[in-house]
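quick q for whoever's on today - can somebody do inverse folding on this one?? i tried earlier but teh output was garbage lol. tokens:
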């Protein structure tokens, strides 16, 4: 979710845990304001999940966006920053590496099924030092089984490495509504359009047009989740009409904005 130029985010502190009290540890947090953390990492796996609000995890590779029913898997030792929209209710999980030997070594967005959502809700209500050899411990194991089976979803914006492309990214992050073409960017940056096109494909795996569309649509998710009018969101992120925005949204997410959040 790209921060808008006139918005200010509250700096959120990072939990100071020397070690996990249990191999599976849950944290509950209410964030009334838009919040962010400094860049950091943990010696354990983190699952960032919100029952309401939209989370964004940023790593050197990209921005991973999680509206409700999605969560971001962050491997142990992965440097990252966490952004959250206003009125976010987080239900994060910290997982010891010993119980996640099946886990991928990269950051990804996971789909949260109804069962997994309720397991996370229930687990967040347990005491910190729950009995591992009783019903609570068995609940934790079922939770791990469901996490292992959760499918990956494509809610990630790859970030370019090239310094010229990073200038384009910073500009569009603040003003996604601008309609600057790749040809116009090439003139501003003093490089050929062909070179920029080739760099976008090599750095992000996407064409400039597809990458900009994904940036806009992922950036629109917090406003849509808050219930803002689709018309306002569409115009605010650079689409000339609601129909064009919905068509792009359907192409990206295989559903309409209303169905996506329903």
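ok took a stab at it. sequence:
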């Amino acid at each position: 979710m790209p921060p808008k130029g006139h918005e200010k985010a509250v700096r959120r502190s990072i939990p100071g845990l020397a070690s996990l009290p249990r191999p599976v540890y849950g944290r509950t947090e209410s964030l009334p304001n838009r919040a962010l953390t400094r860049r950091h990492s943990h010696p354990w796996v983190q699952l960032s999940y919100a029952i309401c609000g939209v989370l964004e995890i940023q790593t050197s590779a990209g921005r991973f966006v999680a509206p409700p029913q999605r969560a971001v898997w962050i491997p142990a030792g992965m440097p990252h920053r966490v952004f959250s929209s206003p009125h976010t209710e987080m239900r994060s999980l910290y997982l010891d590496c010993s119980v996640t030997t099946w886990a991928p070594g990269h950051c990804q967005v996971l789909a949260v099924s109804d069962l997994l959502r309720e397991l996370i809700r229930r687990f967040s209500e347990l005491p910190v030092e729950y009995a591992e050899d009783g019903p609570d411990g068995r609940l934790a194991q079922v939770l791990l089984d469901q996490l292992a089976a959760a499918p990956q979803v494509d809610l990630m914006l790859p970030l370019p490495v090239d310094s010229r492309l990073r200038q384009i990214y910073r500009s569009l992050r603040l003003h996604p509504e601008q309609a600057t073409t790749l040809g116009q960017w090439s003139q501003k940056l003093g490089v050929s359009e062909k070179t920029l096109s080739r760099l976008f494909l090599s750095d992000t795996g996407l064409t400039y047009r597809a990458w900009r569309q994904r940036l806009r649509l992922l950036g629109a998710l917090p406003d849509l989740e808050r219930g803002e009018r689709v018309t306002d969101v569409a115009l605010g992120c650079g689409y000339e009409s609601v129909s064009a925005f919905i068509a792009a949204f359907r192409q990206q997410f295989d559903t309409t904005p209303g169905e996506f959040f329903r």
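fwiw The chain has a mean pLDDT of 91. also The radius of gyration is 19 Å. so keep that in mind when u check it
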